[in-house]
Amino acid sequence: MQKKPKPSRPSPPGPRAYPVREADELLRYLLKTLAGQGRNSIKAMLARGQIHVDGQAVTAYNYSLQPGQTVTVHKEKPPEAPPLVGLSILYEDEHLLVVDKDAGLLSIATEQEKEWTAYRQLMEHVRAQKPEARVFIVHRLDRDTSGVMMFAKSEEVQQRLQTHWRDLVKERTYVALVEGAVRKPEGTIASWLKESKTLKMYSSPYPNDGQHAVTHYRTLRTGNGYSLLEVNLETGRKNQIRVHMQDIGHPIAGDKKYGARLRDLHRLGLHAKVLAFEHPMDGRMMRFEAEVPKALLRPFAGKGKA
Questions:
Q1: Number of domains in the chain
Q2: For 131-160, what is each residue's pLDDT tens digit?
Q3: Quick check: is 156 in a domain?
Q4: What b/e readout covers 232-270, taking b as 16+ CB neighbours within 10 angstroms?
Q5: How much is the pTM?
Q6: Rg (the chain; Cα; Å)
Q7: Catalytic residue set
């Protein structure tokens, strides 16, 4: 006896597009537009990236809608991005990603090292929501430097940020654990940086010979053979802080390449604590801060908060 074919399951409904006719906030608009959907259900759809505005996933309840825009509701749940390892997202919109990177994670692969990187993970993260999406490197942190780092979501945003970096970026503050007791409460280091044939940066003894670099520092704590400094960059050259700390006789803890001698810190004692900038597309002031890792505070345990 011939078996009856099993009835095929109906395909899930495709995305539905809704025009925006007057200014409104996204959640309020959806509550009015999606009759029969409860507030919690709509919030869950927003959190899962199922609501798009003009083709971009939006998760903010209070996102400002303008007449002429299109809101698209995707009934299917998007595939989940793999969990991030060694970094967490501090902020995301259709133009930018700001992350807190752990020490030990490469920002982007090099010719010599093709391993799992912040860049590759974030590429998978954005493609889980939109298969054709991409991320673009704006600046880098060394593998063993932790802290705040920014990526662009388009070449246009990347170029704006890189071209107008000095105008858009208002603050880049690091915390550095250095060897020895820094006696001066604050200071400024300026030099001309060059790169050797072995790819090591150094300060040239000659004026105008290389890239001008300026680093400001303030001493936060000293003790147990270390100092904790707040470091503010006026320029952003390759390995700038590492070279300048070596120049004043207080190399970054754990930085064998630039003169560190002590071996009890199993990472680089450098952390990008604050990144503040004007949003490249709408001019909003943005400020992000990453908590100082405990490893950098351990030499001062029991001596109060930095």
A1: 2
A2: 889 999 999 999 999 999 999 999 999 999
A3: yes
A4: bbeeebebbbbbbbbbeebbbbbbebbbbeeeebebbbb
A5: 0.73
A6: 24
A7: 142
